[in-house]
């Protein structure tokens, strides 16, 4: 058995058992430490860690769905009940929670980056070496982004230096104490790493589970949109679209008779990432918000392709870009069009903003039925775009951060849950929009918990 395979087996066992077991018993490093570029590529191609560890707890806390009372009561895991009602402490085992799964990705990325430090770069391997460095930086940044969206408040330039961010792990040393950086430091680390990755990665990946220049442009566009730096977000979205232009799916060509109509790895997918499904979002339990469903017009093919009618008159979601029940939380071209459109509108370029929005919607309506939307001013355009953004990017784990950033723009979005006679509220501006860290993580590390 070669060293690369041994290493992959070891890492899988390590990450499933938690860091404490690792600290208790060190394995034979001669067998497990990767040493070649092929080892690093094998490490990054371990899709069950690098592309299937995503978190969707932000979406589980957002307002795109609801649980009937019986479904809520049937949740066996209190963790998901707390997420659904924005409750107090999130109780999960230290090695079996969304936090640890995201930091599994960070750990794996750091192992790869450290290995590269011990491999000489030369004229024969420079392309592979650069690609792997860029890949490590991208994978780590993607995990950081998800963590930041879940467990920190929205970026605000006035408070970002003080607001609690996430731990920035620059190496694989488990013995190094984790401390939370500020929101400002966290965003800056992601941006700095992605700008380096841009210089190193190929324009297109050999497969969309691997990072690329296009994916990096897309992630930078998402990050800057979240920071409300619209000129930069729009520019990076534009660079991404220029690579993938012409790749919007025509929903008229999708077979709606399939259980999950939209196939995985379709032409819109720029980077493929899948969430570990939250129990409350199980399609047999979660019902799409009825007011949201009503916004899809009769000739809007998303009304058919995204939803499954239930016998009780409710609807469930089936429109994931995974081709199955799991949730796609990667980067796709539709999101990038919507980012560029929103940024154009916020910068006052209304015609260009509506051109992007109409180009997307043309592919979403039954052929010959779509009538282009027009906006007479900036605010009208923004309203159209944000409405379609929510409808198009449903259950991709973007809504939670959208609510937070839009509230910084004065949207005043508060959330409400009703379970029987109980009413739960999360008011706009509440500190509850930074989800609580798992108790075990705080207990084991001494890390600062988010205020309630």
TrEMBL record:
Domain SusD-like N-terminal, first and last residues per copy: 21-225
Keyword terms of this UniProt record: Cell outer membrane, Membrane, Signal
UniProt domain RagB/SusD: residue ranges: 325-408
Alphabetized Pfam families for the sequence: SusD-like_3, SusD_RagB
Location in the cell: Cell outer membrane
Matches recorded under Gene3D superfamilies: 1.25.40.390
Primary site of residence: membrane
Coiled coil spans: none
GO CC terms, sorted: cell outer membrane
Family according to the record: Belongs to the SusD family.
Name of the protein in question: SusD family protein
Organism of origin: Arachidicoccus rhizosphaerae
């Amino acid at each position: 058995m070669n060293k690369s395979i041994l290493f992959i087996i070891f890492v899988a066992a390590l990450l499933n058992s938690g860091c404490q077991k690792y600290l208790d018993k060190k394995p034979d490093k001669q067998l497990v430490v990767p040493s070649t570029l092929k080892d690093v590529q094998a490490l990054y191609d371990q899709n069950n860690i690098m592309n299937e560890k995503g978190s969707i707890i932000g979406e589980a806390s957002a307002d795109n769905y609801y649980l009937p009372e019986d479904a809520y009561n049937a949740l066996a895991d209190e963790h998901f009940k707390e997420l659904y009602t924005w409750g107090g402490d999130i109780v999960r085992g230290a090695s079996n929670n969304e936090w640890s799964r995201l930091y599994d990705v960070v750990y794996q990325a750091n192992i790869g980056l450290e290995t590269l430090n011990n491999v000489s770069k030369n004229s024969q391997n420079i392309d592979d070496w650069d690609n792997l460095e860029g890949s490590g930086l991208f994978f780590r940044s993607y995990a950081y982004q998800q963590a930041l969206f879940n467990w920190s408040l929205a970026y605000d330039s006035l408070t970002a230096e003080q607001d609690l961010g996430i731990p920035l792990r620059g190496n694989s040393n488990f013995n190094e104490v984790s401390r939370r950086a500020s929101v400002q430091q966290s965003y800056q680390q992601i941006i700095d790493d992605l700008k380096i990755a841009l210089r190193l990665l190929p324009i297109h990946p050999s497969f969309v589970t691997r990072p690329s220049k296009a994916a990096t442009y897309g992630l930078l566009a998402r990050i800057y949109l979240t920071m409300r730096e619209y000129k930069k977000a729009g520019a990076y979205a534009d660079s991404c679209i220029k690579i993938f232009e012409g790749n919007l799916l025509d929903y008229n060509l999708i077979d709606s008779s399939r259980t999950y109509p939209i196939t995985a790895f379709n032409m819109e997918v720029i980077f493929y990432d899948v969430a570990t499904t939250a129990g409350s979002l199980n399609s047999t339990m979660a019902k799409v918000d009825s007011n949201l469903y009503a916004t899809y017009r009769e000739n809007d093919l998303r009304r058919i392709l995204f939803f499954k009618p239930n016998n009780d008159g409710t609807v469930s979601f089936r429109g994931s870009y995974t081709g199955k029940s799991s949730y796609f939380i990667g980067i796709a071209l539709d999101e990038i069009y919507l980012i560029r459109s929103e940024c154009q509108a916020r910068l006052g370029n209304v015609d260009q903003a509506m051109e992007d929005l109409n180009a997307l919607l043309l592919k979403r309506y039954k052929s010959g039925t779509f009538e282009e939307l027009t906006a007479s001013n900036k605010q009208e355009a923004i309203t159209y775009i944000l409405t379609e953004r929510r409808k198009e990017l449903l259950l991709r784990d973007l809504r939670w951060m959208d609510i937070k950033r839009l509230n910084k723009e004065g949207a005043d979005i508060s959330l409400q849950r009703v379970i029987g006679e109980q009413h739960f509220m999360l008011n706009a501006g509440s500190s509850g929009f930074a989800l609580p860290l798992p108790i075990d993580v705080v207990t084991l590390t001494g890390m600062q918990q988010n205020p309630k």
